[in-house]
Design a protein that fits this description.
Elements: E1 12-13, H1 27-38, E2 43-51, E3 54-57, E4 64-67, E5 70-77, E6 86-89, H2 109-115, E7 120-123, E8 141-142, H3 146-154, H4 156-159, H5 180-186, E9 192-193, H6 196-214, E10 217-222, H7 229-235, E11 240-246, E12 276-277, E13 289-294, E14 297-301, E15 308-309, E16 317-321, H8 331-340, E17 345-349, H9 368-383
Parallel strand pairs: 6-7, 6-10, 10-11, 11-16, 16-17
Antiparallel strand pairs: 1-2, 2-5, 3-4, 5-7, 8-9, 12-15, 13-14
Helix pairs in contact: 6-7
Amino acid sequence: MRLRGLFFALFSVSFLGALGATANPSTSKQAARRRAAENVGTLHRRSYFYVGGVYDVLGQNGSALSSEQTYVEHLLPQNIKQRYPIVIIPGYGMTGTNFLNTPDGRRGWADYFLEKGYELFILDQPSRGRSPWQPGIDGTLFTFDSLTIEERFTAAQKYDLWPEARLHTQWPGEGVRGDKIFDNFYRSIVPSLLSNTDSSQKTTDAAAALLDEIGPAVILTHSQSGMYSWPIADVRPTLVKAIITLEPNGPPFINAVFPPFTADRPYGLSEIPLQFSPPIQSAADLQPVVVSSTTNFTCMDQSSPPRKLVNLLKIPVLFITSESGYHSVYDRCSVSFLKNAGVNVDHANLGEVGIRGNGHMMFMEKNNIDIADKVIHKWLKERF
């Protein structure tokens, strides 16, 4: 379990939100140093550890390699003020560094939550980043190219690939290759497992191992990692006290917006099995049916009467959708699937609560602190 009474003989003064400043005399570097001086960050203690991992024997001599171990960054504020820590699991192509500060040097969500007194545990998904990928053991890797990042995340308004894309205004900078802020962000994108099924199982196992070690916690997920929310809660229902998910992978059962529109997430919003009541023998027992269909998006759900996600019934969920991201096309369908399965979901559509112009990378956009403060922290304080 966590040690709440750690002796603070040595604090790390966090420069979250101001990393990267150097002694280079150029104007941009001087500006970065000024931002660093203005934003020292929240006093905290930093440490790291690993959870999970297995030894893969190499041969008859008994030597082995370790795989599937998962890096966990532990950030402990000087004064813990909140009942439960937050476990942060980044989405596809990302590591825990993306939650430390923004690409343009502002405060990230880690610093905000530390200021509010939350203890944080930030993961790098297995086989990614500081959680080593082992050649010959782990699966095929894939990396997003720069154009995909521009089209879907940082400059969606320039490409207009879905109706709401034109509303995107909150990314700092131009959001295209050659812009310094974009370049800084794109350089942080790392190779990730191509198989969502493998990633789902490995990360679920890692998160379960972490919860077994630290005790009850709130899970915060984004995009790809959002679909891990459900199996993590399913296998540790007494330790997951709440789920906050930012535009989790969806919609149910089938891909949307970007072709090909192939079947996916056979358990609704999960690649791997979940416990339903009445029980199912296979994913086919859910008998998905079409609820509605429009251009580039088909909403599907279980056949009636819907089975319940029995282990998630008592876990509150905050499901956040940006005003302009491609999830604005279909997140209501994902929320409907969860509600029909008995899950207690609050859907925060940012545009409808007055937080305008955000896209899929809302946690690093210009108004990122507004989202953390007015939506997430507020929701948590109402419950704990």
